[in-house]
Amino acid sequence: MKLLPHGLLDELAANAAASPRRRAHHNIHASPGDLVQRFIVVAQGDSYFRPHRHRSRAELAVILRGEVEVVTFDEGGRVTARYVVGAGTDNLAYETPAGTWHTLIAGANGAAFLEVKEGPYDAATMSEFAAWSPAEGAASVAPFRQWLRSARPGDTAPRVGS
User: For residue range 129-154, what is the model confidence (pLDDT) as tens digits?
Assistant: First the structure.
């Protein structure tokens, strides 16, 4: 039996605040080879989730604290939809179909979510990052994040250095 105490979210939030990526996670599954990957992610409001897709796997997330906006894109970086999920919204979870370009924007006060996806985990094939988005740590992340916060369906991602 595995129990996940409420205090785990506070511990992860403290770790996320101290992390350069501004997020932290806790694996529930035993190993990368498990056929179902389950983990809790806590992200600060200024964390950057580079737009990506999982070619052959869907992704399910249940919001445990705070809220996120899920933004989806077409191949060229045009916003196709925005969804608000979590506290104070009509939605408690989202599932992203395999092959869908997407990103998350944590609410100003951050967010915590349980993520579930098919395993096993293979870093080389798990996520494909969008070429039209800046890599984590790039100088162009800040203006890109600013654009993400206000982009609407039909808007195309600005061409920024990666």
Answer: 999 999 999 999 999 999 999 999 99
